[in-house]
Amino acid sequence: MTDPTDTRDTGPRAGTPLWAFLAGITVIGFTALVVAMLRLDAAELVELARTPLFWVLAVLVVLGELRPVMVSSAAAVGGTYPSAMFTFAVLLHFGLSVAVLMQAVAVAMNGVVTRKSWHRVMFNIAQSTLALTAAAVVLGMFGIVPTPAVPWVPGGDDLLAIGLAGFAYFATRAALVSGAVALHERRSITRVLKATVGPQSLVYTGLLGLAPLVVVVMNHSPGLVPLFVAPLLAVYFTATLSMRRDHQAMHDELTGLPNRKLLIVSTEEALAEARHDERVGLFLLDLDRFKEVNDTMGHPVGDRLLQMVAHRLTHSVRPGDVVARLGGDEFAVLLPSIRDTQAAREVAARLRAALSEPVRLEGMTFDVDGSVGIALYPDHAPDFELLFQRADVAMYLAKEARTGVELYQPDKDRNSPERLNLLGDLRRAIDSHELRLHYQPKVSLGTGTVQGVEALLRWHHQTHGPIAPSEFVPLAEQSYLMRQLTAYVIEAALEQAARWWHSGLRVQISVNISARDLLDSALPEQLEVGLAKYGLPPAAIQLEVTERILTGDQAYTHETIKALATLGVPLALDDFGTGYSSLIRLQGLAVSEVKIDASFVRRIAESEGDDRIVRSIVDLVRSLGLRSVAEGVESDEVAIRLAEMGCDVGQGWLFGRPMPSADATAWLQEHFETGAEIGYEYPAEVSRSA
User: Fold this and answer.
1) With contact defined as beta carbons under 8 Å apart, do 373 and 397 qualify?
2) Are 628 and 601 in contact (CB under 8 A)?
3) pLDDT tens digits, residue range 123-163?
4) How far apart are CA 664 and CA 441, in angstroms?
5) Which pLDDT belongs to residue 76?
6) What angle do CA 294, 354, 388 make, to 5 degrees?
7) SS3 category, 234
8) 447 near 682, Cβ under 8 Å?
9) How far apart are CA 301 and CA 186, in angstroms?
10) What is the chain's alpha carbon radius of gyration, rounded to the nearest angstrom?
11) Is the pLDDT higher at 622 or at 399?
C-alpha cells in the first residue's frame, strides 16, 4: 500500500547531514563493490554463467527484490526483501563477488520498476554491498572464503560462523538504513531502531536461517531450489494480510493518511522524546466551504478533493512530520520538533499557501482554503488530549476571526469545564422552557409608527443569574444544540406572534438565525407547519441572517432559500457593513430588509466617514427597492440625521429597550397606532398621526 507521506525520493540538499551521510555511504559502498569485482576471476564468472543454477539464482534474487515483506505499516524503514535469503545463500556458496554483483543488479532493476530516485538506488546498492561485505569478513575470520571455482557447502559445525555472519549482515543494513531514515525525518536513531529492529529481525532470522538449506539443495539437487519460493510466498502473503489489517486500523481509508489512533501514538512518542530546548507542535486544519463542494458537486468529487488536499499537505511539511486525517474535512499535522512559535506559524502559512492553489475538478475550478489552529508542547499543554483540545480551540478562533492561522491563547479559550457544564445546563434550559424572548421595537423614522419587533433571546440561569447571549449562543453553535435552540426560538416567536395578531396587533417578529440554520433543509417545513398551527401569514415572521451569508455562492442556489421564497417568509440582512459583500449581490436573495450595523450608526453625528458610509448604504438599499433599518439609534440627533438621509426604520434604546413579552405587549398597545411619546422629534415636513 502506498504511503502518501513517503518523501524519501526527494533529494537532500547539498551540505546537509543527510546529504553527507548518503554521499559517504554511497562512496564507501561502491568502493567495496569495485574491490569485490576486481577480485572476481572473469573466467570463473563466465564458467558459472553457463550453468542453469546461476540464472535460477539471479532470477530469484531479482524477483525477491521487487516486493518487500511488510510486517508492520508503522515500520519507518519499510519492508524486508526476500532476495536476502538467496543473496546470502550465494555469498555462502559462491563468495562475496558473485553475491554483490547479483544484489547490485537486482537493486538497480527494483529502482527502474518502482521508479525510485537515483540517490536512493545508489544508496541501496551501497548499503547492501557493505552488509554482504561485513558478512564475508566474519566468514573469513572462520577461514570460509568461497569462490565460483571452489564453492562452499556448510555443515553442522558451521552454525556459529553462519549465525555471526547473518548477524553482521542484518546489523549493518539496519544501522545504515535506520541512520538514513533518522536523518531524513529528523528523529533520533534510537526511536527508529526501536520501531524497526524488532519486526524486521524476525523476518531476517527466517530468511537468513533458510539460506544454508538453500546452499545444501544447490549442491545436491539444483533443480529443487525454486521450491523455496513456496514458503516465501506463504510468508509474504501472511505478512501482507497482517500488515493490511494493521494499516486499515491506523490509516484513513480514503486518503491513506494516518488516522486519529496513529496520530495519538506518534504524538505521545514525540512528547516522550522531546528535548528541553525543543517544542512539539500540533496543528488542526479545517477546510473552509468544503460542504459547498459536497452539496453542489456530490460526494465523489468531494472525496477526490480531499485526496488532492492530502497530497498537497504531505508535500508541504518536512520529512518526519505527520499529516493525519481526523474525519470529514478536518486534518491534523504533527511537528515532532519545532523551534518556536514563529517557526510554527511559518509552517502553517506554508500549508495554507499550498491549499490556496486553485483545484480543477469536473471541468470546474475550486478555491480551497483552510483555518489552522496551533498548540505547542510544553507551552500550551503537557499531553496529547489537552494539546489536541487547545489546537481545536485555536482553529475555531481562526475561523471566527477569519485570520487563517491562530496560536492558542489561554485568555480566548472558551472551552473551560465551566463552559462544558454550561452547555449541559443550556440543554436542560431548552427542554424545560427556561429561555425567554425579549422584544425590541423597530420604528418608522418618518412617521413614528411601529414597523415590527426583533426577538432577542434571554437566559436567567437558576444559579448564575442572567447569562448574555454572547456567552451561550456561540457555545450552541459549536455543538449539537444549535438546531434545537433555533427551533425553540422560532416556536416561541410564532406563539407570541399568534397572540398579538389574533388580538389585533399585527406586528412582524424578526428572529436571528445562523447561516447554518438558513441552509438547513428542515427550516422551511418547520416554518410552514408553525404558521399553519398558529394561523399566521408568512409576513408575521422575518428571518435575520448576518452579512457573512453573502460570502458564499451557495446561498444563491440552495433549495432552502428557494423554499423560503416560495413560502413567502421574508429575509433581513443583519449587521450590514461589517463583512465583505456587495449590495448588488442582494438581488440574488429574497431579502426585503437591510439592517445597518450599529457600529456605523452610533458615530454618524461625530464621524464624517461613518456618515458617508451610512448615507451610501441607505441610497443603494433604496435603489434596490429594499427597506433600510438603522440599529443602535440612541439619540434624537442620530435619528434626525437618519431620517434626513431617507433611512426607513430605526431600532435602538431611543425607542425602547428589549422587553419581556408582557411589557412588550403593553408598549405595543400604547404605540401601535401612533408614534407619540416614543422620545423622538420627527421632521416637521412629516405629519404624525394623532
Assistant:
1) yes
2) no
3) 999 999 999 999 999 999 999 999 998 899 988 888 899 99
4) 8
5) 47
6) 75
7) helix
8) yes
9) 36
10) 37
11) 622
Q: What is the pLDDT of residues 23-79, one digit of tens each?
A: 999 999 999 999 999 988 888 888 888 888 889 888 888 888 877 766 554 444 456
Burial of 685 (0-12, 13-18, 19+ CB in 10 A): exposed
d(CA 402, CA 191): 39
Per the document, the length of the chain is: 690
> What is the Cα–Cα distance from 232 to 69, expressed in whole angstroms?
9
Structural contact between residues 128 and 173, judged by C-beta atoms closer than 8 angstroms: yes
Q: By three-state DSSP, how is residue 361 classified? A: strand
Residue pair 552/587 in contact (Cβ under 8 Å)? The answer is no
CA pair distance 293, 297, nearest whole angstrom: 6
The model's pTM is 0.49
Read off the C-alpha cell for 264: 495519538
C-alpha 332/C-alpha 325 separation (Å) is: 6
* 283: Cβ contacts below 8 Å, ≥ 6 apart: 332, 333, 334, 335, 344, 347, 348, 351, 372, 373, 374, 391
3-state secondary structure of 627: strand
Q: Residue 319 has which C-alpha cell?
A: 520529512
Asked if residue 86 lies in contact with residue 72, where contact means CB atoms within 8 angstroms, the answer is no
Question: What's the pLDDT tens digit per position in 208-218?
Answer: 888 888 888 88
Grid coordinates representing 547 are 452579512
Q: How far apart (Å, rounded) are the C-alpha atoms in residues 541 and 631? A: 19
**Residues of the chain with pLDDT > 70: what percent?**
84
Residues 307, 298 contacting (CB under 8 angstroms): no
Three-state secondary structure call for residue 436: strand
Contact 543, 572 (CB under 8 A): yes
Structure confidence at residue 403 (pLDDT): 82
Is residue 54 within 8 Å of 48, Cβ to Cβ?
yes
What Cα–Cα distance (Å) separates residue 405 from each residue in 330, 344, 348? 15, 10, 7
Q: What would the grid cell of residue 210 be?
A: 533458510
CA–CA dist 679, 657 (Å, integer):
12
Q: Which residues pair with 456 in a beta bridge?
A: 438
